[in-house]
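Below is how a single chain appears once it has passed through the pipeline. First comes the sequence as given, then the structure the pipeline wrote out for it. We keep one example in the README because the format questions we get most often are answered faster by looking than by reading.
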Amino acid sequence: MSSRQSPTVRRRRLALTLRQLRERAGITSAEAARRVDHDASWLSRIETAEVRPHPNDVRALLTLYGVAGDQAEAVIAVARQAKQRGWWQRYSDVLPDWFAAYVGMESEASVIRTYECQMVPGLLQTEDYARAAFRGAPVPMRDDEVERQVALRLARQAILTSDDPPLLRVVIDEGAARRMVGGPEVLHRQLLHLIEQSTRSYVQIQLLPYSAGVGFDGSFVILDFPPLPEPYPDAAEDRTVYVDTLTGALYLERPSEVAAYAAAHEQLQALALAPGPTRDTLRSIAAELHT
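Resulting structure:
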């Protein structure tokens, strides 16, 4: 199991597991809640990961569902982990709930696949590039808010230098690599940073050139999570798609939705330049900035 444990991932997996165990037991949500002395809305919020259940309540539900022994203890252990606070909570003043969920999942992802058509991905941004991106955002921010957002973005990047970094598979549209965020010097340093990061064994960066034709109208991220150990029941999702919007985000988990985005990312990889030619092209773009 990943050493980068996230209470967000634990809560979402616990929610799905409890729902599936209840359905397997043939008990309705209202009946299950009543038999553990709660109302139906309480269990509904647990099964949609809106609230974190107390481990004692989880134990009562598992007993009701006929789950005992090591399997029950494994689920209860996850319930305890789900109640912990994530490191990102210290940025709660600038971190909306809809994005806090993403940061929590990103923190434990074993594989991160992303396509960016407008900007360099946040995990690969330099400090100056990130600052310029926030200052130029369509929603104005105060200077102190910008600095807090930059600090959060840099803190997120710590997963790439952890003892157990995720595999990062990035496709960047050429337009994103050429967009003059922060001016020529800031962009030049950002491109050199991309080249440097692409030499890491677990980071793959591919550029989708203009010559490839039409790309994909919209950025997205696919997060894969490491499996939980036995005897935890095989009932938790292992992949989520995240789509950012101006005022919120979409989290897609249905198999058909995830499969569609996974196929799109594979197609974008096939159209994009290989890692070596990508580095050559990025060097060429960087050199243009100094001519």
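The chain is about 50% helix and 10% strand.

See the next section for the split statistics.
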